[in-house]
């Protein structure tokens, strides 16, 4: 028997809404938990090695000084990608 002008939610509709909210909450909780696990495994701080700057070149003699300074820099051990990663994450 159908009532005319029925207002409100039926029990079935309420159960469906609660189920959808529960599924969304569970998915959000799992994503939050995975992000917390990933951030805790990342290193807290990195040591930064100071690399000497090449001197300003104002004459031909300065080219040799700049070449020596740049040759002393070991790019493989100085590589710090933290700033690059930060800039890429902002895109």
What can be said about this structure in brief?
With 91 residues, the protein is mainly α.
Give structural notes:
- With 91 residues, the chain is mostly helical.
- The chain folds into two domains: 8-42; 46-91, no CATH class.
- Helices cover 62% and strands 0% of the residues.
- It is built from four helices and no strands.
- The chain has helices at residues 11-41, 60-72, 75-78, 82-89.
- It is rod-shaped and about 100 Å long.
- The two termini are 59 Å apart.
- The mean pLDDT is 78.
Q: Which labels suit this protein?
A:
2 domains, about 90 residues, mainly alpha, rod-shaped
Gyration radius from CA atoms, angstroms? 31 Å
Distance between the termini: 59 Å
The ordered H/E elements are: HHHH
| Outline type | rod-shaped
Average pLDDT figure? 78
Can you count the beta strands? 0
Any low-confidence stretches, pLDDT <50, length ≥5?
Answer: none
Describe the secondary-structure layout.
Elements: H1 11-41, H2 60-72, H3 75-78, H4 82-89
């Amino acid at each position: 028997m159908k009532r005319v002008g029925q207002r409100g939610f039926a029990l079935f509709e309420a159960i469906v809404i609660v189920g959808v909210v529960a599924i969304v909450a569970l998915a959000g909780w799992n994503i939050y938990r995975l992000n917390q696990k990933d951030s805790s495994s990342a290193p807290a701080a990195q040591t930064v090695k100071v690399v000497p700057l090449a001197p300003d070149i104002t004459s031909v003699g300065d080219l040799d000084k700049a070449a020596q300074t740049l040759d002393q820099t070991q790019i493989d051990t100085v590589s710090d990608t933290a700033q690059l990663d930060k800039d890429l994450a902002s895109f």
